[in-house]
Specification:
Length: about 220
């Protein structure tokens, strides 16, 4: 698993990935700026009171909660934007490292959008539910890894496996190798917590899950 992760990391910055990487990064930064601008607008829309110190306290509390809420949302935003390029990434990895295996089937644009929206909705909803626990020191990071490790492992395995097999077969494989897929998800979740590198997390996750799926026998 470590060798697969290192291989995936090196591929993210390699020549074949570079065009997709910059397209994904530029689109992601635009989306994050838009989200940040929306949060700033919401702060300015807060009601004001005649008591100056109360307005100051409310503003600082609102900014604190805006930051706390936005941090778990960074990866879903990145994943949603990058999902438009992930089929291409999976295809590059398969062609480069597994040329003897059957060629995967790319999903249509609309299928990719549906999968991305479903994945992002689940990711956002679960992280918002877990948000109060993220405020607990010593628990927050571990909980983030466990929760997102499960979700990311499941979703990226589905993305990769559906290029070769149908939904029922993918779910059977997922149940059979649930621990290995979960551990791969933990690696992805840990990668997604590293500042700057988390912008490349979906590309890394896709390449890494291609290698993981090949290890468990997906053709």
């Amino acid at each position: 698993m470590i060798s697969d992760a290192l291989r995936a990391f090196s591929q993210v910055f390699s020549g074949p990935f570079r065009r997709v990487l910059w397209l994904s990064l530029a689109s992601t930064l635009v989306a994050l700026v838009a989200v940040g601008a929306g949060a700033q607008w919401a702060l300015y829309a807060l009601p004001t009171f005649d008591v100056a110190w109360l307005n100051t306290v409310l503003e600082w509390v609102a900014r604190f909660f805006a930051i706390i809420v936005l941090i778990p949302l960074v990866h879903p935003v990145v994943a949603l934007v990058a999902s438009l390029f992930l089929e291409r990434i999976a295809g590059i990895v398969e062609a480069e490292d597994y040329p003897g295996d059957p060629v995967g089937r790319d999903q249509s644009f609309f299928q990719s959008i549906i999968v991305a929206l479903r994945f992002t909705t689940v990711l956002v909803a679960v992280n918002l539910i877990a948000l109060p626990f993220y405020l607990l020191p010593g628990v927050n990071l571990v909980l983030f890894w466990v929760v997102n490790g499960y979700l990311l492992g499941r979703e990226y395995f589905e993305l990769v496996s559906l290029r070769h097999i149908d939904v029922d077969a993918a779910r059977r494989l997922q149940k059979r190798f649930r621990f290995r897929i979960f551990m791969a998800g933990l690696v992805i979740a840990a990668f997604a917590t590293i500042p700057i590198l988390n912008l490349f997390a979906p590309l890394f996750a896709t390449a890494f899950m291609v290698h993981t799926s090949k290890r468990i026998g997906l053709k």
